[in-house]
C-alpha cells in the first residue's frame, strides 16, 4: 500500500466501523425496549412475535442445530357430496338437489399467522409464555428458512426439552418429509384423538397443502408436544451488518488489487472529509483516536466553515471529459436521460440523493457515477 494512503485507510476504517457498531447497539436497544414496554398483542400485530408453537429438532448443519417451529395440528370438518358436487354443506343430510352430504374430519397443519421473520433475523426462543427478558432459559438463534407453515431456526445450544423428545430423522425419513413431497403422494396419518373422529382423509385431488406425514403425528404422540408451547421473538437482522463490515475490511485492506480497482478505492478513501480536515488543521496522528475533540475545541475558530463555503477544489473534474464518458454510455444503452442527469448533478453538487422505485436503475446509476469519477481522475493525472 502507498505509505501516503495509510492514514486515509485507517481514518476511513475507524470512522465507519464505529458507526456500524453504534448502529447495531441502537437496534438492539430498540428491540429490548419493545419487549419491555409493548404488549404481546402489539408484538404479534407487528409480526415480531409468534406464540403457541411446537418445536422439533430436525437436523444439524455443522455445529448448529436446526429447530423447526410450527403450530399444533388442528381438526377441520369438511363436507362433500357422494356425486362429486359442492363441498359447502354445513351439516350431514341432503342438499336441495337430493345429493347426500358426507361430513369428514380432516387433520391439518395450520399456516403461521402474519409475521415479518425472514432469513438471517436474530431471534430468541423461549419456553411457554414468558417474556425473553424475564425467562431463566432463553435460546438465541438465527432464522435459517421460512415456510408458510413453519420456521426453521439455527441454534448453537439445543433446549433440553428437545434432547430426547425429538429424534433426528434418517435420510429416508427426510426424503419423505410431507412438506417436500408432491401433495398427491402424501401419506394419511392418524393423530392421537383419531378414534373420536368420523374419518381422516386426504384431499381427493391432492391440491390441499394441509396434511402432514405419519412422523409428525408420532412426534406429537411420543413427545407430548401438544402440552409444550414455545414463543419466538425477533431481534435484529445481522446479515446486512456483517456484509457491510466485510466490505469495509476489504475496502481498507492494504492490498485490494485482486478484489477492487485501486483507482476506485483511492477515489473513495482519499475524499474522506475527516482526513482532509485533520490535514488542513495540522492534527497529528496522536489525535486519530479522538478526532471529535477537534470539533469540541471552543477556543479556536472553526476553519471548516470557511472551507465549506468555498467552491470545491475539483482538480479532477472536466465537463468535456464527462460529456465524452456519458455519450459513450448512452451509445452502449447503459444510461437514460434521468440517470445522466443524476450523474451530472452528483458531480457538481455537494450533496445528491438518488432515489426511485425498484427497477429504475439506481444501482446502475451509482456504478456509472463511480466509473465516471475514476475515469475523470485518471485523465486528470
UniProtKB/TrEMBL annotation:
Acidic residues composition bias: residue spans: 195-219
MF GO annotations: helicase activity
Matching InterPro entries: DNA2/NAM7-like, DNA2/NAM7_AAA_11, P-loop_NTPase
Signal peptide stretch: none
Domain of life: Eukaryota
Region named Disordered: 78-100, 190-226
Domain DNA2/NAM7 helicase helicase, residue spans: 336-372
Compositional bias per record (Basic and acidic residues), positions renumbered to this chain: 78-90
Stored PANTHER family: DNA2/NAM7 HELICASE FAMILY, HELICASE SENATAXIN ISOFORM X1-RELATED
Protein's recorded name: DNA2/NAM7 helicase helicase domain-containing protein
Organismal lineage: Eukaryota, Sar, Alveolata, Colpodellida, Vitrellaceae
Amino acid at each position: 500500500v502507498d505509505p501516503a494512503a495509510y492514514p486515509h485507510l485507517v481514518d476511513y476504517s475507524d470512522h465507519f466501523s464505529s458507526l456500524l457498531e453504534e448502529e447495531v447497539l441502537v437496534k438492539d436497544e430498540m428491540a429490548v425496549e419493545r419487549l419491555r414496554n409493548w404488549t404481546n398483542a402489539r408484538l404479534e400485530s407487528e409480526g415480531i412475535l409468534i406464540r403457541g408453537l411446537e418445536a422439533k429438532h430436525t437436523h444439524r448443519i455443522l455445529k448448529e442445530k436446526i429447530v423447526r417451529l410450527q403450530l399444533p395440528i388442528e381438526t377441520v370438518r369438511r363436507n362433500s357430496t357422494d356425486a362429486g358436487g359442492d363441498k359447502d354443506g354445513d351439516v350431514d343430510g341432503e342438499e336441495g338437489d337430493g345429493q347426500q352430504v358426507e361430513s369428514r374430519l380432516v387433520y391439518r397443519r395450520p399456516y403461521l399467522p402474519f409475521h415479518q421473520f425472514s432469513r438471517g433475523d436474530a431471534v430468541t426462543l423461549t419456553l411457554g409464555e414468558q417474556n425473553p427478558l424475564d425467562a431463566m432459559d432463553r435460546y438465541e438463534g438465527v432464522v435459517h428458512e421460512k415456510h408458510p407453515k413453519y420456521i426453521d431456526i439455527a441454534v448453537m445450544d439445543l433446549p433440553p426439552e428437545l434432547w430426547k423428545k425429538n429424534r433426528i430423522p434418517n435420510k429416508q425419513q427426510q426424503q419423505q418429509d410431507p412438506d417436500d413431497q408432491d401433495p398427491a403422494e402424501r401419506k394419511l396419518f392418524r393423530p392421537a384423538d383419531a378414534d373420536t373422529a368420523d374419518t381422516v382423509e386426504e384431499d381427493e385431488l391432492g391440491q390441499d397443502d394441509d396434511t402432514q406425514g405419519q412422523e409428525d403425528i408420532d412426534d406429537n404422540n411420543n413427545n407430548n408436544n401438544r402440552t409444550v408451547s414455545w414463543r419466538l421473538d425477533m431481534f435484529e437482522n445481522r446479515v446486512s451488518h456483517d456484509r457491510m463490515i466485510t466490505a469495509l475490511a476489504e475496502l481498507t485492506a492494504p492490498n485490494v488489487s485482486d478484489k477492487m480497482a485501486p483507482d476506485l478505492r483511492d477515489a473513495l478513501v482519499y475524499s474522506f472529509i475527516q482526513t482532509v480536515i485533520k490535514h488542513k488543521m495540522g492534527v497529528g496522528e496522536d489525535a486519530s483516536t479522538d478526532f471529535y475533540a477537534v470539533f469540541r475545541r471552543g477556543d479556536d475558530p472553526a476553519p471548516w466553515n470557511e472551507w465549506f463555503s468555498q467552491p470545491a477544489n475539483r482538480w479532477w473534474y472536466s465537463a468535456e471529459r464527462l460529456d465524452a464518458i456519458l455519450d459513450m454510455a448512452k451509445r452502449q444503452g447503459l444510461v437514460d436521460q434521468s440517470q445522466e442527469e443524476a450523474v451530472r448533478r452528483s458531480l457538481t453538487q455537494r450533496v445528491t440523493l438518488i432515489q426511485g422505485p425498484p427497477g429504475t436503475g439506481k444501482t446502475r446509476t451509482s456504478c456509472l457515477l463511480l466509473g465516471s469519477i475514476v475515469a475523470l481522475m485518471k485523465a486528470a493525472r
